[in-house]
Structures are given as structure tokens and as C-alpha cells.
Amino acid sequence: MSLYRLPDRGRVDRSTPVTFTYNGSPYTGYAGDTLASALLANGVHQVTTSIKYGRPRGIMAAGPEDPNALVQVETPFPEPMLTATTVELYDGLVASGLSGQGRLATEPDPARYDAMHQHCDVLVVGAGPAGLTAALTAARSGARVVLLDDQPEAGGSLLGTTELIDDRPALEWVEAAVAELDSLPEVRVLSRTTAFGFYDDGFVLALERRTDHLGFAAPEHLSRQRVWRLRAKHVVLATGAHERPVVFADNDRPGTMLAASARTYLHRYGVRCGQRAVVFTTNDSAYQAAVDLADAGLEVAAVIDARPQSPAGWAAECAERGIEVRSGHVVTGTTGHERVIRAHVAQLTDGRPQLRSGIGCDLLLVSGGWNPAVHLFSQAGGRLSYDDALGAFVPSSSLEAVTVAGAARGTFQLDGCLADGGEAAQRALAGLGRPTAGGTPPRPSAAHESAERPLTLWTVPDPDEQHAGATQFVDLQRDATVADVLRATGAGLRSVEHVKRYTTIGTAHDQGKTSGIISSGLVAQSVRAGIADLGTTTFRPPYTPVSFAALAGRDRGHLHDPERVTPLHLLHVAAGADFEDVGQWKRPRYFPRAGEDMDTAVLRECRAARESVAMMDASTLGKIEVEGPDAAELLDRLYTNLMSSLKVGFIRYGVMCGVDGMAIDDGTVMRLADDRFLLTTTTGNAAKILDWMEEWLQTEWPDLAVRLTSVTEQWATVALVGPRSRDVLALVAPELAVDNDSFPFMTWREAMVAGVPARVCRISFSGELAFEVNVSGWDAVTLWEALLAAGESYGITAYGTETMHVLRAEKGYPIIGQDTDGTVTPQDLGMSWVVSKKKPDFIGKRSFARAENQRADRKHLVGLLPVQRDILLPEGAQLVADPQIGPPPVRMLGHVTSSYRSAALEATFALALVKGGRDRIGQTLYSTVGDELVPVTVAEPVLYDPEGARRDG
Amino acid sequence: MQLIPCPWCGPRDEVEFHYGGAAHVAYPEDPQSLTDEDWARYVFFRDNPKGPFAERWCHTASCRRWFNAIRDTATHQVLAVYRMDEAKPVTS
Ligand SMILES: [Zn+2]
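ok -> C-alpha cells follow
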């Protein structure tokens, strides 16, 4: 047993020793230790050096509020930026101290992360005395209760104290309470779970650490951490309070700790944090630490109480133990290097320290009062006000579905906390309309009555007037001092938010849990304003750091976004297709043969389509069925052209515009029956167009009797393209008359194709003779394989989206969203013919008449032919008029929207949006290619078969 | 994450909904008779008040129905929801 580990105290498991390595040295601790408590048990206070000044830094607290003890854990998996005070010890732990910055693992994290969803009546955050009472009271009424706590076991502050409840040790009461909660079917108790964000309508996010404490023994099947997404009808916040220090010179010396934290180390971990202590306080709470430490065999040299009068009851207790109490005194500084060896003590007269004397010590305990942990309350929209007596911000507004209980609202005595918890639960139950069940409220042991109010003291004046405040650390993690705060206010900053950004106080992992209010207090003093008026900086989630891996949960890799595949996907995979993402769809981009790169494969695929026959999986096209007596009327209002005149059996191309007249989608419309149409949308636009149509139907024209149904997934579509496509179709559809007179362009037929029922359309997105065969998704493989077999003698070639793009671009067919950007009208696209002159109105029509849409210099879709026929223009390249780029601003004429190599043209070509483009046909412009400008000739957008001779085969 | 009460489905997470801008901006009776300016007002101009604001929402990820809501743009609180064929309720 080391000098610092007591044999008879604490909740660590002495039968399970644990070995670990810190900063390269081996140590031993026990199961139940934190890394911090184990280090302290080994006499190690200094854990790292500071980020800016390289000063030795030690463990200052016992919880997540610690500003210093940042560590990098190396095993079993590297993890940066953890606080030693929250890392539970496990066998084989290897860790080292960090100066502000950690190191992410370079290898992928093998752990799994998950999310859980839970609704409840009452969510209680914090399983201390207030939270436990609240949870018990709520649970006994039968309400569905979730109780969260960030520690491995319930009890909160009771874990670090010696209080009695119902005349027995408080932790026995805790144990009974948890057992009762566990026995109730509607109650869930989550330990090692930190509520880190409070959002609207009772939505709370919490991080549960499931296996971190197991180290190498973590079972593989368990997710390491999971984020609980809780929706509660009422939330009880029993989040406790954080002790804050008083700032004095060299207050960062290792061995300087918060008083109650030392008490926690003693009672919870059986660790004495030193051999000879000085306690510096502004309130009563630190006396308990002094007394407990003395009872545990530490020499407590003195209690330095900044108040003029020490509390009589506590003074008597100290006297009993031979502890000197100096009231009206302060600690002004420390001596030591890697550990404090002396506290400088001086009398405080009229706010000025007098002659100093030194008191030897290796432990300097400090208490400047308590800050209620109001983070979640503030995030929930609760207002805070400054409580002068406590020197802290407390909840001041009443939220309908949130109740704060115990120390979180400034109730620091145990009896008050127990009563608070019960009342909070009653308020929650009343709001839910549930009666409160009976039960005897727990009864704590009597507390010391005190007549002495706490004193609010942010800093002790610096005896070193020349470098005043330079070693008085406010935010130890950021190495920000009193001098830094004064520099900020000296520069004219008044807002605590501005001072925070200027000094970086409160921006580290601890988010200023111990430093924030001290900074506010200093600003208030410096600018002679009331701290109540200055307020606090905003409490933003997360309360404690949360890893991105936990937030991402399972939504990583291929689960990051849904992947949609067509019924033919496995065939494409087997055929060695290279895929691209189109929206959420996986589409074959091209089908390379051995040794082919994309360019070669695409040239081959294009040649097959133009010279013989080729086929593509077009199943991803959005398909919407429009049905009802007013179906034709709806389409007339939404498309720029007339759809009601379309005859059953026929197909028409159509464009939809927004009210601003800009093209938003295009596709084909088939009339299936008088009251039934099937329209197609661009692959990536299907959901948007369905929404768009529904919006008009539901909000503007609810009188129209029409129903819209997405049928994208019901149909698999194969485009059969090329001069020999008719021959191939005839082979697989022997009963279908496929000649041009029987089956003309822009018509559709029902037929058996490859032995399965199909709808065959004669439409073409390539300019070639082409068919689109639609079958049920179940029959897609049958169709595809039959077409491949039937076309074999013609060299039928499967092609992907890249070839489709080349073929359509050669014909000047734009892709909405690629060749347009929401500022392009059908007229800009050269498609005035698709805009009805007859219809009195349709969506977008009025906008075409706007002056802006009449301008001659609008950008038009044109073709571009690079003068040097093998230069591929980058899509997005800017176009200019001159071969030399002059001084800025350079006038841009437009940009390249699509650019490909064409087998048919034996050249590269592009589509572009160019100002007044149709009036520039034949002109030479210049396109950026890297740092060069290359000449391009403006051409008609239809570069291949402009007379349309190939359409009918 | 806020709960938005769909008038058809009840309260649901806000991620299920799609925002549709100001409510009660009717498509003009006869757009062709409007001046460019009046048409532009319909197309481009919307109120942006601080406080209660009548908006259209669509419960996209569920019933796919559009409805109207009065929402306080400062607090995000949804003060009322009503179906497309219901009159705008009076909120204080
Ligand atoms: Zn709904």
C-alpha cells in the first residue's frame, strides 16, 4: 500500500489490481480507479505541461470539469483529448499527458458505434441525491422514467462524501434506490451516460460509454459507445454543481486542487492527495474537506478563509483536530516547481493583501464557491440570473417541461437536494396528469448550520505589481491569465462573448466549467459593470466532448447514405461495370473490357450504338403515374407544352418550369388512358418533381381530381439503341409489329417481350432508332439476358451513363441540372418549340414575358468545337472573347456545361451556356484549360445528324 | 430537434418535414394581366417577420401532405397547424 492509498477507504476493488503505463512509467492501481485517482495514489500530481508556457500542470478536479489533465490514450486504440479524471482504469492502459493537442489514430477505428431511440414520460439527468429522489418519485407513479448518470455508479456527490440518509450511510440508500428503480418495468437506468445536448421539445442527446472501461477485455459484439436520442415529456435536470477555484499567482502549480475533489479522491478512491495540506476557501464547503482529510491522517496545516469571520461550528471542528484557521486571509501565490512546496498567505485588509508568510505544504486545496451546472437548462432555452449570495448564475425562468433540482439550481445542502428531487418529480407528474404515489421522503443527517455567507472572490490581487496577473491563470488549458483578461478589456472589449474569443478562455475541452464565470467576474470588475448585466457566454452543446465516430454511429461507409440499385445491378457487377453515383443510385458508368480505360470503352460503346445496336439500363429514370379525371388538366398546367391533346398510345416530350420560368425538369409523358399518364423525370430529380406536383395539387388546385404515384421502382427500363435495334426487338417480340408505320416514333405499345409483359416505347435519347422496353422489376433480368442473346450476332453492347451522355450531347439534348443551373429558360435552351403559345397559362408562362427574360444577351445553350480537335475542355471552364486575359475584372461570356470525346465526330466537343450564344455561331471564343486559353468555335448545339435522318432507322 | 404536429399524423421529428415558405400566397387569378412588377412581387417577394408567421409545411417523410402552420420565427414554436382547407386560426 502506497503512502497515498488508504487501506480502509474508497470504493475501488482492492482484489483487482490493475497495471498501467503513464508517460512511459509503469504504475499500479485498482479496478474502480480513474486514471487520475490511480496517478494520485502513486503520488503523481503533474500529468503534463501547458500548451503555451510549458508549465507543469497537475490534476485539479475529480470530474469532467478538470481543465488540466488532458491525456492521450494509446491502448487498445489511440484516442486523443481525454481527461484523466474521466478515464476509467483498465489493465494494460497506456496513456500520456497532452499539451493541449492530441493525435488521431492513423488506422481505421475497429469499434462499432450505435444510436438508440427512447421516448419517456420523465427523463432525469443526474443520479445524485436530487436525481435519485426525482426518479424514484416519478417511477413509483408508474411513469416511464429514464435516469442518466455520467459515472459508473449512481450516487453523484454522495460517492465522495460521508453523509447519512435515514440513519445509515447514504450509499446504502443509493443502492436500495437503484435496486427499486431496476425492479420497475418502465424504468431504465443508464450509467456512464452523459447528457450532452438539450434541444427542442424535450429532445436530449446522451452518450453512453459501454466498453471504454473494459479496455482490452471489451467484447467485440458490443458497440463501444452509443448516442441516446431521448424524447421526454418532462426533463428533470439534477446535474449538480462544479466547484470553482480562486485565482492567485502561480495557481497552476501541481498539487493545487479543488477542495471537494480532494475529498472525493479520499472517500471514493481511498486516495490521500498529499501529506500536508493548506485549504484556501471563501465558503463553508471546504471545511468539510479539511476535517475529512485530517481524519484520514493528513496534516492540515491551516484553513485560510478569505471571509472576515470563520464559521463557528467549523472553527470548533478544526480546533478539535488542531487545524489552524486564519480568517480574513488569502493565498496570494505559491512556491515550487513540479509541485507546490509552499503557499503564500497574507491578511486581506480593505481588499489588499498585507505582509505575506509562507506555509509549507504539498497540497493546496482551493474553494471559491460552486457553479450550478446550468448547461442543459440554458441549452433548453432557460434564462439564468446571477445570484449574489452564491456568486454564480442560477436558473431563473420556469420552463414548462423542464425542472431543475438540487445543486443545479443552487441548493447545496443534502436535505434541500432530497426535497427538491421529490418536488421536481411531482411537478413533472402533475404536468403529465399523473397522481403521485405515496412513499416516505428520505431523511438526511443534520448539516452544519452556518451564519457566515460565502464570499465571492474571483482573484487575489497579485503581489507582483510589475507583472500583475501574468501567472494568475484563469483558463489553465488555454494558458490564459488575469493579465490576458485585462488586456482584452483594455482593448475596449466589454462583452463576455468578445472577451472569450479574444482570450480563448472557455474554448477548450472543458468549455470553461471552472473558468468561465471567473472571467465574467474579472470583466465586470475591470469595466465596473455588474456581472449580472454582463451575463454568461452561451452554453452550447456538447456539455462534454463527443467523438465524431459516436455521432456518426452506423452511418459510415456504405451506410452513410442509402444506396439504390436497379434489378439488373448484380448483372452489371458481374459484367465488370464501373459505377457512378447518380443521386442515391448506383449506375454503370461504362463497361470496360480488358485493358480499356474509360475513354476507350466509351468510344467503343458509342460506336456500337451509332453503327449497330447497344443497350442501357435506364431503370433509374423517375416515373410518376398521374391518374384521375383531371390528370390531363394538371399536366397542362405544369408542363410548358400541351399534354391534354396527346392521344392514348402516344408519347410527348415535355419541360417543366418554376414560376420564374426556369427549367426544372424534362422528360417524356405517355398517355396510358384518357385519365392516366405516366411521366418520366431526370434520375436525380424524381422525388423533387413528385413533391413539386403534389405541392401544386394540394395547395393550389385541391379541386383537381388527380392522384400521383411514384412507380420508379415498379418498372425496369432497358434502352435498346442503334440502327439494328429494331431487328433485335423483332427477335424477342415476335408478335409485335416493329416496322416504322406500325410502330412510329413517339408511340408506345404493349407486347410480350422475351416472354414477359412489357410496355415498349419508341423514344430516343441518342438520335438513333431506339426503343425503351419497360417490364416489371421481377422480369428485368429475363429481358436483359434475352436482349443480349438476341443481339449477339449484331455485336450488341451494354453501355453506361458516360456513353449515354456523349450520345445525347452530340444531339444537343441538355441534361437539366448539368447544362442548366436554375437560371435557364426553355428558350435559352433553344427549345421555344416546347413552349405552348396556345395555352392561356401554365407555370412559368408569365415570367417568359418579363423584360429580363427577353434580353438578347441571355445565355444560350450552344455547341463548342475546340479548334485543336483533341483538346477536351474541362466542364465548368470559363469562356472569354479574347486570346489574352487582360487585367481583372475579366468579362466572362459563359461556361462549359458538358464536354466529351465523340467517336462519331472524331473530335472532342462540348455544350456551353454562352451570352447571346445563338448570335455567335461560327465565332471563335477562348476557353480556359488549366492555365492556358484555347480557341473554340461556337456551333449549333446539334452536332450529329442535325436533320434527324437516323431516328427511324 | 423540434416536434412538428402534422394535422394528419400527430407530432413528429422535424427532419420528416419539408419547408414550403410563406402560406396564403395565392397563385394569381390571371398572371398574364399583371404588370412585371406585380408578377415579380408574387414570384420573388415574401414577408420575413420576426414573430408569428403563417407557413406551409409538407410531411414529406410520412403522409406527404401539405399543411399550414403558424410558427414564431424567433422562438421556432409552432403555435398552430391547420389543414389546407381550414381557415387560418387566430393566435395571440
Ligand atoms: Zn403527416
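The CA atoms of residues 58 and 64 of chain B lie 6 Å apart.
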